[in-house]
Amino acid sequence: MSDWTRKTAAELADALAGGEVTSVELTQAHLDRIDAVDGDATAGVHAFLHVDAEGALAQAAASDERRSAGAPLHPLDGVPIAVKDVLTTQGLPTTCGSKILEGWIPPYDATVVRKIKAAGLPILGKTNMDEFAMGSSTEHSAYGPTRNPWDQTRIPGGSGGGSAAAVAAYEAPLAVGTDTGGSIRQPGAVTGTVGVKPTYGAVSRYGLVALANSLDQAGPVTRTVLDAALLQELIGGHDPLDSTSVDQPLAPLVDAARQGATGDLAGVRVGVITELSGEGWQPGVMARFQESVDLLVKAGAEVVEVSCPTFVHALATYYLILPAECSSNLAKFDAMRYGLRVVPETGKNGGLPSAEDVMRVTRDAGFGDEVKRRIILGTYALSSGYYDAYYGQAQKVRTLISRDFEAAFEEVDVLVSPTAPTTAFELGEKLDDPLAMYLNDLATIPANLAGVPGISVPAGLADEDGLPVGFQILAPALADDRCYRVGAALEALLTAEWGGPLLAQAPDVEEIR
Fold it and tell me: What pLDDT digit, counting tens, does each position of 63-77 carry?
């Protein structure tokens, strides 16, 4: 394996600028790594659903030509990247991990993808995910599960397990994920990577196939906090094509990450959320969390406990709002315009099949069990006679959760908690228990309901199983720079203790070719 695949994106950018390597060489090294370890539904990491070797190498060659010609370049120009398969990519398949979109080739790029291409980053391919981003384990993909590079009998988190696993397995230095209730941060926690959910609206949702419009947010998946800052600055910003896009600049994120990396947090007030701990939380997760909090104190931060009482209702609130929005969004998959179409031999009443018959049979064949479960739940919550009792009440609780955040941020600069209650569980362990699966997002969901930014940073390995633990940092809306400053400080302190990055302690993924 080439040493280039072990470098961070910032290191690769410096190497390209210094003429030590070409983008074609970097891209080929990562394609070779994918070929060696990724595999498919039966073996390997299976982080990718589609690898675009030809396209990536062509983009890399164009980057090298620009550099040779002395053209102005983005700092990440030539650094390869992977994209979650929920973002539309012109000329490449976008399936959202679902059979109902198998083979669909979008005619346009998502704004995030357009920005990546404009900056000159070769796109290696599209990463695996839970179908339509519904799940916490990437086991709900119609194309088979992704496996955790730390232990391939374990889940890599979800829904964006493919992006996190690709970065953790050194198949890509950067990836883009999406976070509806924790789908960037929770995979980051269980794979030992950095995952960021930006402020809602800080990164365009145009071209992001919607699960829940008021919750979905694209963001970075990387191996370091600095790399995440570089990527968010690239993909972020106002987009007139997205009505929810925030027309207000964020404070510089890269500067915040570099400041944090000095390890100085003097004057920073940190609030430990009392509701996100206790019974049901894995002891090894809590031990690493407390050690990380102690390091923040040593770095000069003031740490206090903060109560956010309505957070205990966040999970129930989320699983009413999300299915309701999901049932509305997925209604467009009707077998009439694009995607899968299954035509039964006869209609429901024995005659020629009607449009309703085609729609019914197609959805039955194209949607998986988890998607069907949430569509049914959401349709029920929105139905006449139940709307006020369920969806309406959930929106009221959502407001209370936002008020808890506002009150907390009057006392502290950031809030912290473990990212997930446990480390990566075994494949199949919770697949038949939806409620147990949903509990994995217990700590991450409040940020999505309120629209505030959050980051998960590796905090070490749990004593029970030697698997990664994540440390979550939350900040007020549009104060993403605080997440990066505190996250980079913790990363620097822990890396010094470990003698190197946490991923260096992971067993290397065996080649399968």
Answer: 999 999 999 999 999
Residue 1 — pLDDT band, cuts 50, 70, 90?
Answer: very low
Mean pLDDT for the chain? 96
Q: Which residues, 6+ apart, have CB-to-CB distance to 110 below 8 Å? A: 87, 88, 89, 204, 206, 207, 208
Pairing of strands 48-51, 123-127: antiparallel
Q: Which two tokens stand for residue 114?
A: 């357009």
Which position among 7, 84, 126, 197 bears the catalytic label?
A: 84
Has 159 been annotated as catalytic?
yes
What is the enclosing helix (H) or strand (E) of 175? strand 175-178
489-492 long-range CB contacts below 8 Å, 24 or more apart? 489/260, 489/261, 489/262, 489/263, 489/264, 489/265, 489/296, 489/299, 490/292, 490/295, 490/296, 490/457, 490/459, 491/194, 491/224, 491/225, 491/260, 491/261, 491/457, 491/458, 492/260, 492/261, 492/262, 492/263
Q: Which two tokens stand for residue 482?
A: 């605080």
Q: Whole-angstrom Cα distance, residue 295 to residue 278?
A: 21
Q: Are strands 81-84 and 123-127 parallel, antiparallel or unpaired?
A: parallel
| The one catalytic residue among 63, 137, 141, 159 | 159
Give the mean pLDDT of 262-275: 97
Strand, coil or helix: 345: coil
Question: For residues 412 and 165, what is the distance between their CA atoms, to the nearest angstrom?
Answer: 33
3-state secondary structure of 200: coil
Active site includes 456? no
- Give CA–CA dist 452/420, Å, rounded: 18
DSSP 311: G
d(CA 336, CA 338): 6
Beta bridge partners of residue 218, listed in sequence order: 178
> What domains appear along the chain, each with residue ranges and CATH number?
3-311+399-503 (3.90.1300.10)
Out of 136, 183, 245, 456, the active site residue is 183
Would residue 328 show up in a list of annotated catalytic residues for this protein? no
C-alpha to C-alpha distance for 117 and 81, rounded to whole angstroms: 10
One-letter identity of residue 458: P
Closest to 413 measured CA to CA, from 251, 262, 290:
251
List the Cα angle 362/133/491 in 5-degree steps: 165
pLDDT digits (tens, 9 = 90+) for 66-120: 999 999 999 999 999 999 999 999 999 999 999 999 999 999 999 999 999 999 9
| Contact status, residue 90 vs residue 106, Cβ threshold 8 Å | yes
